[in-house]
Amino acid sequence: MLGEIFYSVTALLLIQAMGCSGHTKYDFKIVYEWKQIEYKFASEEERSAAIANGTFDAGRIQPIDAQYVHDAQTGRERVFITTPRIANGVPAALGIVTDEVRDGNPIIDPYPSWSWHLNPEQCNYHRIVSGFRVWADECNRLWVMDDGYIGSDSTCPPQLLAFDLKTDKLLYKYEVPYEQYQNVSSFIAPTAEIEDFKNKCENTWVYVADSVAPSLLVYSLKQNKSWRIQDKSFEPDPNYNTYTIDGDTFEVADGILTVALTPKQSGNRKLYYHSMSNIKESWVYTRHLKNSNNFRVPYGSPRLFKTYKGRRNQQACIEAIDKHGFVYFSLLIDVQIVKWDPRTEYTNKNFHIIANDKETMQFPSGLKIGPYKGGPREALWVFSTAYQRSASGHLNGNEINFRLFFAKL
């Protein structure tokens, strides 16, 4: 069980942050940590062969996202890890953390099986080429957005997959129409909204951030149809393309990178979002996104998208919203996890720091909130990946680079 391997992080600073209900202590614990990523090969011979032929190069693998899931009926807990094919030498793009360890690194078992990850350039029907982030929904489905890239090459058409988390069988597969990506897109962050649970939860919408185009992909499961949306608020700011974290500097011009839904009980549900290489926060009502007539032409409905007047003082990565409507995200340069009440002005003075360990929490590229063990209480999962090390060519396999944290809210 995952709970058996939790241990406190003595070096992590625990911050008391003021919320609406008073002082709250966020007791983060490390669940897993890696110096480098290891996979569960069938044998030592197979692993050695993968190293020899270049399909497995642990020093080049950069994980991005983590997803915790819990089966209420069986009590089974699992953590999914994405390892997109940003570079060559990545044998599998998605897997589950096992109880096995190699040189101190928890071993990842490719999901749903090795066969889905072999020979990705062949674009087989059952394939996962490269996925940055995944999403587990309330209907026990895992949504995987495969952008189809190997390195900088658009190898296969991007596709949206959904797996049954009870059986690990493929439920849905949707290839994005060519006119909605045209070899310039990098679909990076899916979020699913379930309107009701009728007919096997068919009334589901998936919103996917495209950081390169930049644009937003909206997919209706019921219609089995998608449309692409563009807006100026999705774009990066060239003044914020440079990042320096812990002495490592790199440049990236990422547009919209993250989307997060306000709670269902809020009525007119909103989708919050921001570009990574920018300092603005924006939102749009989901009811507008669900009407494709609003977006017949690119940049056709600027009036629908709202941007807060306030600004951050630095770039931010992924964000998430809890059941009370509070927004959580990371400030990348200062290495902080913060909490913000959207009823207040969007500015650093209203960002309550809940964690700020500059050694262990560098570049949280994965951040999710969900029910803990199926109960009413939520948990915040933070996957710090020190992305700046691989982006600047300074990834060191002799030190801990990737850590998965957990804190009850």
From TrEMBL:
Coiled-coil intervals: none
Listed Pfam families: MRJP
One GO CC annotation: extracellular region
Signal peptide range in chain numbering: 1-22
Primary location class: secreted
Stored Gene3D superfamilies: TolB, C-terminal domain
InterPro entries in the cross-refs: 6-blade_b-propeller_TolB-like, MRJP/yellow-related
Keyword Signal listed: yes
Protein name: Uncharacterized protein
Compartments where found: Secreted
